[in-house]
Amino acid sequence: MTKSQRRPVNGVLLLDKPIGWTSNAALQTAKRLYQAQKAGHTGSLDPLASGLLPICLGEATKLSGLLLNADKSYRFTCRLGVVTTTGDAEGEIVATRPVGHLSRERVEAVFRQFTGSIRQIPPMYSAVKRDGQPLYKLARRGIEVERAPREVTIHELRLLGQNVEELECEIRCSKGTYVRTLAVDVGEVLGCGAHVSVLRRTAVEPYDAARMVTLDLLRAQAERGWTALDEALLPVDTVVANWPAITVFGDSAFYLRQGQPVLVPRAPTAGWVRLYQGEQQFLGIGEILDDGRVAPRRLLAH
């Protein structure tokens, strides 16, 4: 299909990425089903992981960076007593250790050590780049390099259940958090070692899992036609649904579209806002300047 045959479709698709798929493969499949001119995802999920992968189509790609930087939530299973090369079930086993008795109180006490602002060393099997090359490519060649710790924030880390071999967990964390690294670090503090055996993303703020759709559902919708397929899309402005809204009319709307700041009565005094012309038309996002004017920062094409 040539680019001229693709559709100018705009919106956000909350895809339930299947296990075993790369994020890019899932993205390209969705883009092909929609015959979209432009599409991008908002932060990779490992092939082992399933769950929420927001895909921005058309004009929504202009706001995709906001989702990349957003807080995220996961449910995951921590397999105790087994250490792997990758920190997950895809890696080779490098050590097995006895687990022993771990009380819920002990596990929750360790979880509290990893709540708040912490420092993580990115795993070698990650997309972090060193001299322009992803670390995972070096790792596959048996090369390990020094990685600088990164500061991330664990807003919440909950123990949902446990048995002799596994911990069922839920986490809400900042961008850049590696759940695999967290599981490995928790396993070391517990003394038995651990890795992630199941990982599912359940939220990318402001979105949760409630509106996710599967690739199978998309394929079925595609057979019914564009209208049915497009029903799965959320409006572009849902990316910033939690931001204050400013509505402009007439000359103010004109000047904003020209990239010029405008004064809007009763606007917030600081911060970022979503911009509308009239009651319905989403223009994009803006920022309140020190002098109180609203400056356009990222506008959609209309």
Report on this model:
The chain is an alpha+beta fold. The protein folds into 3 domains: 3-69 and 207-237, Pseudouridine synthase; 72-204, Pseudouridine synthase (2-Layer Sandwich), CATH 3.30.2350.10; 243-299, Archaeosine Trna-guanine Transglycosylase, Chain: A, domain 4 (Roll). It is built from 8 helices and 17 strands. The strands form 4 sheets. Strands 1, 2, 3, 4, 7, 10, 11, 12 and 13 form a 9-stranded mixed beta sheet that branches. Strands 14-15-16-17 form a 4-stranded mixed beta sheet. The relative contact order is 0.16.
Which ranges are low-confidence, i.e. pLDDT below 50, for 5 or more consecutive residues? none
CATH homology group of the largest domain: Pseudouridine synthase
Beta percentage is 25-35%
At the fold tier of CATH, the topology name of the largest domain is Pseudouridine synthase
Cα-to-Cα separation, first versus last residue: 25 Å
Give the assembly state of these chains. single chain
Overall residue-averaged pLDDT value: 91
Shape: globular
Helix content: 10-25%
Biggest sheet record: 9 strands, mixed
Number-wise, the strands total: 17
Query: How many discrete domains?
Result: 3
Spell the H/E element sequence: EHEEHEEEHEEEHEEHEEHHEHEEE
Secondary-structure arrangement, i.e. CATH architecture of the largest domain: 2-Layer Sandwich
Structural class: alpha+beta
**How many helical stretches?**
8
Report Rg. 22 Å
Highest-level CATH class of the largest domain: Alpha Beta
